[in-house]
């Protein structure tokens, strides 16, 4: 007879331990000494599973006064 596990019960009985590492890359272009445009790519890698958790792409503007 096959065993069917209830995911909710299994999660509370045996909590999973996950370890992750954030990795980010930046690219910035300076137009003059006060204004810069850039983009940031960030991902979160789960080491314990060996997969990507999330990937984000964030553009930004930096103005120095």
What does this structure look like?
With 65 residues, the chain is mainly β. It has one domain (18-63). The protein has one helix at 7-13, and strands at residues 20-30, 35-46, 51-63. A 3-stranded antiparallel beta sheet has the order 1-2-3, with no helix packed on it. The chain is rod-shaped. It starts with 6 loop residues before the first helix and ends with a strand.
Q: What is the overall silhouette?
A: rod-shaped
Q: Can you give the mean pLDDT? A: 80
Largest sheet features: 3 strands, antiparallel
Structurally, the number of domains stands at 1
Distance between the termini: 72 Å
Percent in helix: 10-25%
In terms of quaternary structure, the protein is: single chain
Number of helices: 1
Question: Could you give the count of β-strands?
Answer: 3
Spatial strand arrangement across the major sheet: 1-2-3
Write the layout of secondary structure elements.
Elements: H1 7-13, E1 20-30, E2 35-46, E3 51-63
Antiparallel strand pairs: 1-2, 2-3
Summarize it:
With 65 residues, the protein is mainly β.
Keywords summarizing the entry:
65 residues; mainly beta; rod-shaped
């Amino acid at each position: 007879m096959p065993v069917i596990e209830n995911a909710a019960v299994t999660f509370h009985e045996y909590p999973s331990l996950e370890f992750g590492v954030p990795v980010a890359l930046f690219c910035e272009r300076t137009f003059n000494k006060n204004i810069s445009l850039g983009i940031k790519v960030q991902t979160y890698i789960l080491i314990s599973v060996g997969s990507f958790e999330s990937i984000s792409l964030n553009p930004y503007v930096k103005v120095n006064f």
